[in-house]
């Protein structure tokens, strides 16, 4: 590789050994000054004592410079300068040290002086150019580099710096001219050709930009990067057919180049050749050399287009190719899970998420997706196992305690349910929505354990947060009616619920059962007639039979009991009711 120019630090370290020699050379230039009498200027001749003191300060300064004790070095160079202000090396070291101490403006006059004193020293040019560049005085820096490369031999390497400065000033023709000079010296260079291409494109000269690409391709026909770069330029300028031809040529050179496959897929898609594009995309995704992040980026774009069925089929295929090509990458399985979720396929989505956390268990959102899907699919055993595993990594996340407690509640393991729910409720803090959900589940769990006071407290806490919550109004009023307690409160809550949802059979049944307990049979019958017309739930049908029995319509009551028994899910005493044709309470 060609060097683009020496850094200031490297240059200066090289000068450490030469510092004393440069200093002495500068002083020797003044050994025979013009007589002050004839010039009107003070003599530059130093006495032996001054010469010795000046050299001593300079050597000390160099020592501190090498040790990177720049303030001390600056002090010694300043003392030297007080004795020998016209010494180029001293001016140079003052500029250099000031620059390293962050005093760019302070460095400038010394750098200029050094170059004026010794205009043939390339390092003095470089220091001054860097100072101008640091101050964003690019025009001045250009002048310095131009002078350096024109006047000093063997400085062609600094044409790179000059080119960059021309580009920063948008002097494109000057940049092209300078790049041409570099090619004259060094021949065809990849970096130079690419720079020239970009300049031609800025100048809207597509013909010359493409010619530069052809020059590179001709120099190395087997270099697939050159072909793909040429295809990119063609595609960017809407020459899709030509871009496809060049890309296909690149893939003949390197059939396993996954990025070439991606490019060809995109080009074919833009030409409306969807099936061919999909085939190329599949080849790219099946290739492990295509990095996982590139694949994830493409799959995320597919997710945005779901749940379109045609899109879903291709997205799933690409997701499966990704997991096969990257079996140890958690993000491969995570994005596959996202694809399946958005395609409406919950079970494979959950299973892919599980594989993702097996590889990298520290992702809260993936665990969250797992337990949500377990809950949606009513897979309580999986929900218990997965929530407990999630709690090993996120023990302070109340949501996992909620799902764990809920799953135990559904499985009728009430002690474990209340333990998890109570712990999670404490973690929920001031989060009202979470507090509401925990209290609703605790109301059900404590009721099932006949801990009625705790159950009532939980429901009251839930209603304090959301007075019209359907779950709380329904279960609380129903459980009160079953216990025959506080029926007036139960009636008020059930009435509020039915007012919100006048056609919900479950809520109609709850209200009817409260009225039944209050012996308001006619109104209970009216509500249950509406409920059984909309539902085949065995409990609702059995309740309707009980109300009919209380109203003296015993034959009709028996028919409802038989129907409830046939549906399945009625009370344990339904068979005795049917057998004896009698209501037992």
Description:
The chain is an all-alpha fold and 585 residues long. Helices cover 77% and strands 0% of the residues. It contains 33 helices and no strands. It is elongated, with a radius of gyration of 43 Å.
Name the features.
single chain, 585 residues, 33 helices, disordered N terminus
**Coarse shape:** elongated
Average residue-wise pLDDT: 90
Number of helices: 33
* Class by alpha and beta content: mainly alpha
Helix proportion of residues, in percent? over 70%
User: Could you give the distance between the termini?
Assistant: 96 Å
Give unreliable regions as ranges: 1-43
| Rg | 43 Å
Approximate strand percentage: under 5%
Question: How many individual β-strands?
Answer: 0
The description of the largest β-sheet is: none
Write the layout of secondary structure elements.
Elements: H1 8-28, H2 36-39, H3 48-66, H4 70-83, H5 88-100, H6 104-117, H7 122-134, H8 138-151, H9 159-168, H10 172-186, H11 190-202, H12 206-219, H13 224-236, H14 240-253, H15 258-270, H16 274-285, H17 292-305, H18 309-325, H19 330-342, H20 346-359, H21 364-376, H22 380-393, H23 398-410, H24 414-428, H25 432-448, H26 452-465, H27 470-483, H28 487-500, H29 505-517, H30 521-534, H31 538-550, H32 554-567, H33 574-580
